[in-house]
UniProtKB/TrEMBL annotation:
<keyword id="KW-0117">Actin capping</keyword>
<dbReference type="GO" id="GO:0051015">
    <property type="term" value="F:actin filament binding"/>
</dbReference>
<keyword id="KW-0963">Cytoplasm</keyword>
<dbReference type="GO" id="GO:0008290">
    <property type="term" value="C:F-actin capping protein complex"/>
</dbReference>
<dbReference type="GO" id="GO:0005737">
    <property type="term" value="C:cytoplasm"/>
</dbReference>
<dbReference type="InterPro" id="IPR037282">
    <property type="entry name" value="CapZ_alpha/beta"/>
</dbReference>
<dbReference type="InterPro" id="IPR042276">
    <property type="entry name" value="CapZ_alpha/beta_2"/>
</dbReference>
<keyword id="KW-0009">Actin-binding</keyword>
<dbReference type="GO" id="GO:0000902">
    <property type="term" value="P:cell morphogenesis"/>
</dbReference>
<dbReference type="GO" id="GO:0051016">
    <property type="term" value="P:barbed-end actin filament capping"/>
</dbReference>
<dbReference type="GO" id="GO:0030036">
    <property type="term" value="P:actin cytoskeleton organization"/>
</dbReference>
<comment type="function">
    <text>F-actin-capping proteins bind in a Ca(2+)-independent manner to the fast growing ends of actin filaments (barbed end) thereby blocking the exchange of subunits at these ends. Unlike other capping proteins (such as gelsolin and severin), these proteins do not sever actin filaments.</text>
</comment>
<dbReference type="InterPro" id="IPR043175">
    <property type="entry name" value="CAPZB_N"/>
</dbReference>
<comment type="subunit">
    <text>Heterodimer of an alpha and a beta subunit.</text>
</comment>
<dbReference type="InterPro" id="IPR001698">
    <property type="entry name" value="CAPZB"/>
</dbReference>
<protein>
    <recommendedName>
        <fullName>F-actin-capping protein subunit beta</fullName>
    </recommendedName>
</protein>
<keyword id="KW-0206">Cytoskeleton</keyword>
Length: 292
């Protein structure tokens, strides 16, 4: 199945042409990644599958008509033009032979979706979450993969016209020795904030960050796969959130402070916006630490 070759660990770009294409994508504006990817695919159609597998795009959702709940679309629940809902385990539009997890993985998927939905409510308040489990090796029953997703839109306020947080956590889980499993996690967070008003003009603060971690942990009736993955996921997301606050927002403030502004009112207005964004990130991080 096509999902088996989509893990971020390993050699992503042995082809020089693919390497060059990915380097071009890294230099494109993050807020226009879909248009940039479409243009690149039109230039080199032979790399379509590789580019779609290696370039993270903003997450989208659709509603499960049988349950009425929204779910997130990604390559890990896609089969052709159809996407599987984690709530009903059905594809929409319907397909006859769509990939579905084994009964054991499906039960873990149900449990993980319930837990992760609670995580989303506690730490993000609003938005959507989805979890997908899948087989990775037909010869090894204990190995599997999982993808945890969160999509949150931020309401317009204080000059912020648009704000989006997308986080993608992909696990590759394999048995190492009796009762122990190796967890390889690749996390990508995409953040986009657009500001437009008469004082500061049109400002786009967007970017993405990808980090990896790897741990070997025991699995028991108490310390389950979901518990192990949940702890790694939470630590990784907190690390990235702190990096965004300290690197991107603080760096933006330093750049603005170092610029010679001809309009002091516009500079002051922009500084208020960056301080507001910084306070929001710090407050959210503090809430996570307090809740945990």
């Amino acid at each position: 199945h096509r999902l088996l070759n989509q893990f971020p660990f390993g050699n992503m770009a042995e082809d020089p042409q693919l390497t060059a294409a990915l380097n071009v994508m890294r230099r494109m504006p993050p807020s226009r990644i879909e248009n940039s990817l479409a243009g690149l695919i039109e230039l080199v159609p032979d790399l379509t599958d590789d580019l779609l597998n290696n370039v993270d795009q903003p997450l989208k959702t659709q509603k499960d008509p049988t349950t009425g709940r929204e779910y997130i679309l990604c390559d890990y629940n896609r089969d052709g033009d159809s996407y599987r809902s984690p709530w009903s385990n059905k594809y929409f539009p319907e397909v006859d032979d769509g990939f579905v997890p084994t009964p054991a993985l499906r039960q873990m998927e149900i449990d993980a979706n319930n837990v992760f939905d609670t995580y989303r409510k506690l730490y993000f308040d609003t938005g959507f979450s989805s979890v997908y489990f899948f087989n990775t090796d037909e010869k090894e029953d204990e190995s599997f993969g999982a993808c945890f997703l969160i999509h949150k839109d931020v309401e317009a306020q204080k000059g912020l016209t648009e704000g989006v947080w997308d986080s993608i956590h992909v696990f590759e889980v394999s048995a190492t020795k009796a009762g122990h499993f190796e967890y390889k996690l690749t996390t990508t967070v995409m953040v986009s904030m657009a500001v437009n008003n008469g004082k500061v003009g049109d400002v786009d603060l967007s970017g993405s960050m990808t980090k990896q971690s790897q741990q070997t942990l025991p699995v028991t009736k108490v310390q389950t796969h979901i518990a192990n993955m949940g702890k790694m996921l939470e630590e990784m997301e907190l690390m990235i959130r702190n990096s965004i606050e300290s690197v991107y927002i603080q760096k933006t403030r330093e750049v603005i402070n170092g610029m010679r502004a001809s309009d002091s009112a516009a500079s002051d207005a922009f500084m208020k916006i960056t301080k507001s964004l910084n306070a929001a990130v710090l407050a959210h991080g503090g809430k996570r630490q307090k809740d945990s």
